[in-house]
Each structure stands twice: as structure tokens, then as C-alpha cells.
Amino acid sequence: MSATMPTAEIAPRVEMPMIGLGTWSLKDPYHSVRTALDVGYRHIDTAEQYGNEDLIGRAIADSGLPREDVFITTKILSRDVDRVDDIISASLAALRTDYVDLWLIHDPPPPGLSERLWGSLIRLREAGFARAIGVSEYGTSQIDAIIASSGVTPAVNQVRWAPALFDPVRLRDTTARGIRLEGFSGLRLADLDDLALVAPAQRRGVTPAQILLRWHIDHGVVAIPRTDSDRRIEENLDVWGFELDEDERRAIDALSTVRVAARACGPGCSLVGRVGTVVAPTGVPTGPGEIAVEGQLPLIAWSSELIAVGSIARIVGCRSSRSVDVVPEPRTDAEAQP
Fold first, then answer.
1. What residue ranges of the chain have pLDDT lower than 70?
2. Which of 22, 25, 260, 307 has the highest CB neighbour number within 10 Å of its CB?
3. Are the beta carbons of 182 and 175 closer than 8 angstroms?
4. Cα(282)–Cα(292) distance, rounded to whole angstroms?
5. Is there a contact between 273 and 312 (Cβ–Cβ < 8 Å)?
6. What would the pLDDT profile of 280-311 be if each residue is shown by its tens digit?
7. Sequence-distant (≥ 6) Cβ neighbours of residue 189 within 8 angstroms
8. What are the residue ranges of helices labelled H in 205-282?
């Protein structure tokens, strides 16, 4: 790994660089990856669904870097639960490697299938095709389900992560399980003109984007910014010469919209939200298309589950106060990809 790139140990003897290059929808993946590797990136994130693994594999091979110096992440869609071996073989061939450093389940399958797909990833890791395995967009209860079924904890949970989605409960619960949180779409989902980012940037002579990425790092969250700009690729890596102070971090944390509902309803209320088939934070399945939270459970923990599923826009019932918006309107399929 790069001598100057801080890393996080996500599994025994597996070090993940704290900043990587996201490659979803890049206009020229080969050029962007070559540029990133030339300026010091050692972490490249892709997925079978992106359709760019071949170009990324060629860029890594042409860079001349030893394979062990580049951390490669790819992903398998939950719909491919019955095609795991074929998908894995195709991804490895496209990436021109015998193994990847991290294999993720790209999206949460329905209950039951998640455990089966997770079992397949465990088998592939044990066979040496992945150094570490993890998940993407999983809620805490979904993670607990696959741990309970296998005894194996994901190394990473890759999720949308930006100031508006800052969720200290999710971060705490993920860390407590020994899982590293990795954030995507941070720059795309942030308001880079917000004073909480602009003011510390001006004080340090850096950009708001660099402040945002430093905010990830200071919270221990791995960041994978995506950009087609050569200048920004280099700029996004240059965040090691400063740190945010506590007041600055808190100001950015305060941009979170996750806590709005907690203030509106408070403890003791009973809520029902329509989210599809999920499991409540208590681990108790609710009726079709619903999730219920009652008693003293903080609503912020409940909203973590909703954000993880990504299909909720509004609480539709609350006995102790009015219904309130929790997160933005549901994402499109395109927005759901890192």
C-alpha cells in the first residue's frame, strides 16, 4: 500500500485504504483509474453491474503496480444468488486477477436469500477468491441476520454517507459489531455551498469537497468519491495535511436530516412506515410492507433501517404526533448505485 495512505484493518492482515476511487458511471473508466493510480490512489471500487470491470482491470495491469499494492473491491447483485460462481469467474477474468480484496453483496436480498448469498461469499473467501467480504446498503437487523446464520461478520457495510444522512446510531452500531462503514455518494449528496463546509475550507485554504472527505475520515468512515475530473481526482486524495476540530465536525454533523423525526415524535410514540419487506430494529418482522416501532426505542435507530432500505419517504402513522418526513423522496434505480 502507499506509504502515505492511512488504512483501516477490515480483516486479519487486510488493510483497506481510507480513500478510494468510485467508478460507477465514469465516462472513461480506464483513463480515470490510470490517473488515480498515477497520483497515489491504491483503492479502486467497482461492481459487476457497472459494466466497467474489464477497463478497470486493464488500467490496473497497465499501471505497472504490483497487484498486491492495489486494493480492489467489486460486488455481486442479490438477483444473482443462483449464479454466484459464474459471476465471480467473470469478474475475476475481467479484472485480470485471481482474487479481489473485498467482495460485497451489492444490495440486500429478501430475507432468507440474504443468508444464502452470504454463505456463498463465505465459501468464495475460504477458497481464496476474496481476502474479505462484506455488504452494501444493509440495515443493522439485516446484518445481524446474516451473522446469526453463519457466525461470520461482514468486514464492511458500504452505504450512502453524507452530512444530510449522518446517523451516529448507525455508525455506533456498525463499529460495535467490528464492521467498517464505507461511504459513497458523499460529494453528490452534499451541499458544498453550505457554510459548515465552506468556512473551515476557507480557514485552511482547501475546498469544501476536501473538508467533506476529511469529515468522513475523522469519523472513521472510508470514502470512495467519484469524479471524471483529473484535477478533482488528485484534489480528493489531498486531505491528509489537516484535521477538523470538534466544533467543525459538530457543525457538519448538525446538517443531518435523520434526527428531524426524533425531535418531532420523541420517545414513547408508535410509528408505522411503509418500506417493503424489512425487519424492525427489534428483530421482529411486521406486516407486509410495514415496519413498526413502539415504546422507548429512539426513532433515529428506526430511521437508520429505513435509510438502509432506501425506499421510505414518509412516516405514515404516529399516535403521539403528526406524521413527518424522514428522508428525501425514494431514490431512482440509477441513484441507488455508488
1. 1-3, 259-338
2. 22
3. no
4. 9
5. yes
6. 333 333 333 333 333 222 333 333 333 322 22
7. 160, 162, 164, 165
8. 208-218, 230-237, 246-253, 260-265
DSSP-assigned beta bridge partners for residue 325: 314
Rg over alpha carbons for the chain, rounded to the nearest Å, is: 20
Catalytic center residues: 50
The rounded distance, in Å, linking the Cα atoms of 102 and 156 is: 9
At 227, the amino acid letter reads: T
78 and 118 in contact (C-beta within 8 Å)? no
The x, y and z cell numbers of residue 5, run together, are: 495512505
Residue type (1 letter), 141: S
Residue 255's SS3 state is: coil
Cα–Cα distance for residue pair 120/109, rounded to 1 Å: 13
- Predicted TM-score of the model (pTM): 0.79
Give 8-56 as a DSSP string. Answer: EEEETTEEEESB-EE-TT-SSHHHHHHHHHHHT--EEE--GGGT-HHHH
